[in-house]
Amino acid sequence: MRAVLSFACFTAVAAVAAMACVSGGHGPTGSPNLDGGVYVGDGNLAGLQPETLACTGDTTACVSGTVTSKSLPAAQRFVASLFPMFPIQGVSPVAEQEVAVDGTWAFSGVAPGAHYYVQIVGVYGTTSIPAMVGPVAVPTSGAPIAVTVEPVELDVVEGSTAGGPLELQSALAYVFDPATGAPSTGGDTVSMLVGGTAVPLAWTQIVTGVYGYYAALPAGTAAQATYTLTTSVGGAAATSWSLTATAPAFTPSITAPAAGATVPAGQDLAVAWTAQPGADMEVPNVYTLPSGGSWTVENASQAPLASSVTQATIPGADVLAGPLLVDVSFLVGNCPATADGCVIAEAIASNQLTAQ
């Protein structure tokens, strides 16, 4: 069973999400919080599995639905988790529960918010296979959400900087045997259509001890409205999977410190930016540029912030003398119940500084 992984040093899609240090998006062009794999709950919840679950109280404060599996044997059990934002490294669920015997799940009394995500994990022995749906807004319409667990976990990451064009950065696929639910051991074939050309995803160590199929796209590769990934497990006929993207409807900017500013080295650095309620989350980062090296993130372990936040403090220990790059990544996820995975878009604002 895969444990809690980061979507980091992104990418948890990996991530996001692949979303590990193998990503094509780093420094000025990508969040270090998007490498690895998304949160996967282990399902070790106390109590008996309920026969059925339904909303209680105000139905507009309830996120509920059903779960089924597709192209997989029956799971031993399912576990549902509700997250306040896209679940990359540093994001914990606000609630978890056993899915009922009849496949229903329901989270009642949920606080208002526009960026909830539901993850359903199918448990197959020592393997967990997740499916993600979101964003989900509360208050809700009360309509149930139908979640399908499939023999793949797919994440595509896009990014743009300084209001530039949205580019395709990377794709990650975890593949499972449809007959047993067992994870791939690297002998399968995975590819993604990019501009009509099939791009292979290579078997890659995403984070220590965790492998998946991954591709980093060249800089300048245009983002697409939809993505098709194809898997062939054990030489069987290929299966196609579809993902749907949504572009950030905003251009973020950092309001302080100003580009080109000189700041004191070794002292806390206050960073402020324009509010972007359309984002699922925000991740501020600071990078240094060693002589003869490349931009290196100094604060990759910080937790992501809610979209209502407009400032953060970089600890003085991370404000090293020399050139600095401060950026804030605004992440927008899209995991509709009708798709087979998630597309995560980053809109990045950045200012270059000098610390002395």
Low-confidence stretches: 1-43
Give the count of helical stretches. 0
User: What coarse outline follows from CA principal-axis ratios?
Assistant: globular
Strand content: 35-45%
Total count of strands? 23
What's the pLDDT, averaged over the residues? 86
Write the element-wise H/E pattern from the N-terminal end onward. EEEEEEEEEEEEEEEEEEEEEEE
Task: Tell me the Rg in angstroms.
Answer: 20 Å
Give the proportion of residues in helices: under 10%
Query: How far is the first residue's CA from the last residue's CA?
Result: 47 Å
Indicate the multimeric state: single chain
Helix/strand/pairing category: mainly beta
- Biggest β-sheet description: 9 strands, mixed
Describe it for me?
The structure is a single chain. The chain is mostly beta strands. Helix content is 0%, strand content 44%. Strands 8, 9, 12, 13, 17, 19, 20, 22 and 23 form a 9-stranded mixed β-sheet that branches. Strands 3-2-5-6 form a 4-stranded antiparallel β-sheet, with no helix packed on it. The radius of gyration is 20 Å and the shape is globular. Mean pLDDT is 86; it is low at 1-43.
